[in-house]
Each structure stands twice: as C-alpha cells, then as structure tokens.
Amino acid sequence: MASRPRTLRELQQSGYRPRSVKDEMRANLIARLRAGDRLFPGVVGYEYTVEPQIVNAILSRHDFILLGLRGQAKTRLLRALSSFLDEAIAAVAGCPLHSDPYRPLTHHAKALLDTHGDETPIEWVSREARYQEKLATPDVTIADLIGDIDPIKAATLRLDYSDERVIHYGIIPRTNRGIFAINELPDLQPRIQVGLLNILEEKDFQVRGFPVRMPLDIVMVFSANPEDYTNRGNIITRSATASIRRS
Questions:
Q1: Which of 23, 42, 53, 134 has the most Cβ atoms closer than 10 angstroms to its Cβ?
Q2: Going from the N-terminus, what domains does the chain have, and what CATH number goes with each?
C-alpha cells in the first residue's frame, strides 16, 4: 500500500490506466477462469447451473438479477462479486463519488485538480469499499438511493438549488466505480424502481429534476424472491414505465 502513487504526477508516471467496472470484472473473471480457480468459494451445487449464467452476464458486461427462494445463497453470490474487482483503484482524495483522477466527476474533484494540478492527492479505494448493498423496503426513498437537495447547505453557501454542491448524494452515486446490490427488489416501490431505470440505461442520474447530470460507472445487481411478486410487490419492467410515469 505504501508504494502506491499518492499524487497525480506519481500516478501518471506509474503508467496506471483506469478501466470501467464492467471491463475490470470481465478481465479478472477471465483470469480466474484461465487459472482454474473457484469462482464462488463456499457456494456448493451451482457449478453447472447458476454460476455459468453469472459468468455469461459478467463476460457480456450486463447488470443482472438473481431470482430464487429464501436460503438459496442469492445474497452470498452477490457479495462474492466484489472478488472480481481489482484490489484497489485510484481516486481523487476526498471525493464522495471516488472520481477517476483522469476524468473528474464532482465539483470537489475538479476544484482539487484545478488547484493542485500534478500534486493533486490520490487515495486508493479497496475492492471491499466498492461493494454496497441495500435491502429494499417500502420506506426506501429516491433520496436514500440517489440523493436530494440540502436546503441548509444551499442557504449557507448561497447557492442555487441547481448547483451540484448542494446535493447530498445517496448510496448509489457513492458506489460509483463499484457494485451496488438491491436485495428483495419487489419490495421497492414501483416509482423508485422506475427512478433506477435511468441509471441502468443511461448511466447517469438527476436530483429533483434539476439539470445535474453525472455519468456513473457502476454495476447494478439485484435479488428477488418470485413468491414476493404477488405477496408484497412486483418488478417493474421497461414496458411498464410509461404507464407509471403517466399515473
């Protein structure tokens, strides 16, 4: 850890080149397959059923959902995905969204690079810190997942609500350059599920309709129990999105 670059200049001199999360997972999976290593240690019985499907999803750079009854190791499989991430990635120090030093995402990262240039401090984010999960419950809000405007910060800094600096980021943006998992997806309100479609399809997000757009580099995975479709909720598909937005 001590030998890793600590400034932008050192990072450039080291030859470090970032890659997208899906490219990263794909490359590491291929290396594991070639080495003959177990892909999901501790999970037994899925070697010829579930695991090949997960492998195909990662190789195809897809987001995906695991369907199964309780106790079938869905969450354990999702958590094991972090092992396909690099040991650590370089990020602009202090950036809440782990900005790539070569492609700053937030105002904080851009200001730091403008101020310090090649001496911009770099931090290393471990693979464990790049996996986050959320249990879907009816009380989860779009602010929890994506973010919201902080009126106190806006008033204190005398900034307009459309300014990025007044955003309190939710858990999904804070997982930028990582893996975000939602367990028990049918329990999530339909309108919240629709709010996630833009991240899945366009890889960006907006907060309260203000024109703050940030392209996120994130892998989104989900788990669901088919029994929950009728007992507690359902999974919203793209075809259902239009009718929900009109209601």
A1: 134
A2: 8-246 (3.40.50.300)
